[in-house]
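Co-fold these.
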Amino acid sequence: MSSHLLSVDSLSRDHVDHLLRVASRMEPIAQRRKVTRVLEGAVLGNLFFEASTRTRVSFHAAFCRLGGSVCDTTGFTFSSMAKGESLYDTSRVMSGYCDAIVMRHPDQGSVAEFAQATNVPVINGGDGPGEHPSQALLDLYTIDKEFTRLGKTLAGAHLLLTGDLKYGRTVHSLIKLLSLYAPMRITLVSPPGLEMPSHLVDLVASRGHRVELRESLASDFSDLDVIYTTRIQKERFTEEMMESFSGVSQDFTIDRAFLDQRCNDTTIVMHPLPRDSRPGANDLNVDLNGDPRLAIFRQTDNGIPVRMAIFATLLEVEDQIEKDLRDVRWFVPRKLGVDDREF
Amino acid sequence: MSSHLLSVDSLSRDHVDHLLRVASRMEPIAQRRKVTRVLEGAVLGNLFFEASTRTRVSFHAAFCRLGGSVCDTTGFTFSSMAKGESLYDTSRVMSGYCDAIVMRHPDQGSVAEFAQATNVPVINGGDGPGEHPSQALLDLYTIDKEFTRLGKTLAGAHLLLTGDLKYGRTVHSLIKLLSLYAPMRITLVSPPGLEMPSHLVDLVASRGHRVELRESLASDFSDLDVIYTTRIQKERFTEEMMESFSGVSQDFTIDRAFLDQRCNDTTIVMHPLPRDSRPGANDLNVDLNGDPRLAIFRQTDNGIPVRMAIFATLLEVEDQIEKDLRDVRWFVPRKLGVDDREF
Amino acid sequence: MSSHLLSVDSLSRDHVDHLLRVASRMEPIAQRRKVTRVLEGAVLGNLFFEASTRTRVSFHAAFCRLGGSVCDTTGFTFSSMAKGESLYDTSRVMSGYCDAIVMRHPDQGSVAEFAQATNVPVINGGDGPGEHPSQALLDLYTIDKEFTRLGKTLAGAHLLLTGDLKYGRTVHSLIKLLSLYAPMRITLVSPPGLEMPSHLVDLVASRGHRVELRESLASDFSDLDVIYTTRIQKERFTEEMMESFSGVSQDFTIDRAFLDQRCNDTTIVMHPLPRDSRPGANDLNVDLNGDPRLAIFRQTDNGIPVRMAIFATLLEVEDQIEKDLRDVRWFVPRKLGVDDREF
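Predicted complex below.
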């Protein structure tokens, strides 16, 4: 693995496999049944130049679980950058204070530029329309974990990606990671004008997967294993799209009726979150809350072991953790809520 | 104890007794003469959707003293909530990242709503005009601790609650807790229009306490044990109240003259803080600074052991702590300032 | 050492020597080759009422390296201060929650006022035009460390201070610290109107140093050991100064040509940072990036051991640390970047 995690493009199949394996070994610590001090004395610089509370807290918690300390920075800019400091200087200074850096920034490419000047690992926590590699990794980890539980395998699986496939960076990164694995069947359904970019369709097809494009969800999905849905943001629409969309909006909404009538009992539903729960939001319907097929909260939970694995791997301590594990005497199992139910 | 701490209403006498006993056992750790790692690896989500630096820092420090890590969030909203995410989703996601959550929010009831979706303990750090149970508990703990030191008991004690008794949520919660204990004498003094709500007066009276309402402080308080005073906020006043109030404002101000002339040598003075020290602020007078009867800073200091006890109890580790205590070789006693003097 | 660090004026030669020695012993921990838990259970209140990301992160990381926890506060004011709370009350309350406080505030003298009411050590992290003592200490530590490496000594050294010597508080504090040491030669070069205040020139001269004032950099510096340069902020200029300055601006810019033509191979370049890298910024030129004589990033790196030494000394644990040191099995040396090269 390279010394940074800036994009899923830098990840080989071996890298991804290794990360997923390490993430799996992190589960007892993520659930606080075991504790480790492997990152004792280490400091994470958690730099969020764009607000993203959940991602910030997730990285923060993951680093703490490994025994490290975290210094958060939130806001639109470094105070020193406002005084004309270059990203180069900021980056080099911060890397003298921290052992690893997570950075989220609204400008595509800025995290990579920042990473060039540091001598500590940098993780891209999202750079605007660019990349958000830890999200793609936790998505893949979730599919793998749910499949293992259900006795399924990636090879031959049928996945549906739906919603806004044009602007949703998470589906772009996820499909790249999926393409590294055994041939599967990937169905893409999006409103006209929000289709998956053709270079990504071509990439996946070129690697032996069966890719199918459909214009509507009104067909048979009885063999479906995974639905990955994203919000359709009306503000993305042109006027022309608005007209054609108004009549078909419900066609792209995943709800309980869709699962009950067109899918099967083990079709899981994923979503990168947040989802818009306001009326008329064209997003994953809340009527699936409490349904064991709704995997969205198990998915966010997986952010902790996956981000722990990213830190452990970049800091090259993944093999030290096992030697440093201890039981906690005081472990209290979390009460499971209605949306934590598995099948 | 329930799995959350949302309101003092959920607390029985046994719960409160237990919390106070645990708080007392936390003192050596709160003062950093002992250390524990009982919450090692645990993460607190400290969510302040309304600014309250002191309360945030107090919860933060209490969790750290138990060996845990804290991730603060400050600001008016979650970034994801601005995108239409429901409190349900936010809550469920956060509870996958953290082992406990403290939440302060300007809207009454919002913390309880948040708590319904989590599977980790939630502590109400103040929900607007609603509840702030940890404040009431530290107030009661302070009275109990001061009384123990002075050889007094709650039974038969005389307490004066004064200031704005209508809008001050801290006096409401405190009087509920006091009502659980042995009969005492409670005198209420407030400007007309800012009286204690009658349902609370009735509650306390129905539990066998002697409640007396007075319109002014100009009487004999020579047997008084505790003054609990709160700021009178003029912005709460109607025009009519303003007129009647202008002539009597000094009647509701606690100062050194009042203590010297009408109270006794062991009458302690409490206040929920912050107090308004600006001239003409109708708040606890600064001329008591340095007087050992002024207990307001001993009171805020008690926030640490009380909040430690809340965490320990909700996370069910209160009995593990004793087994995990260690001395610190490097303890340096704090220098006592002028306002830390006891009698 | 006093119980606070508010100003370099309170530091004797012995204090400074002790701090530098302790800082040197902190290096293995600062570089994470060793870990300590000497401040386990301790909480730092890191209060930044003025934005300064780098200083905040530096103090934060230093305290964590010693095993402590940090609670950051950022923003222009305490929420309670907005309600009329005095600095006295705020200070006393905070000192009940924390074991040490770092405070940065835009108003000169406010940190000292804050410190008067606390019973825990307070470190001035910069009070507007006032003091920033930890910066001066890390500057001196950097000179000492670079000299040791190069086989040089402070006695007889030749230092150039240049740029804005009137408003730059860092050069004022540094020159005070330097004046405590063996006689050296200090050359001051600044644009007219931005000269070093005469009382500081007199102070240094009175302690036996050779001080020379020049109006331009266009002379021989072949025996120079250190350049300490600061940004010239045009917004400081009067109209008259602007006119006279426009013709000479490049005269005060330190760049590679100046070092190559007028200095020598071991002249190191320091700067308090941030530097303004925008075109025409009258600041240290980026063409020195990658030159081993550019010590600015080694200088910021030194902020960690120096701030660790400040905490250790104020909390009186500097002799406990050695007894508590442990190796880390998992240490991964940082990759050195181009600007970390020493000679």
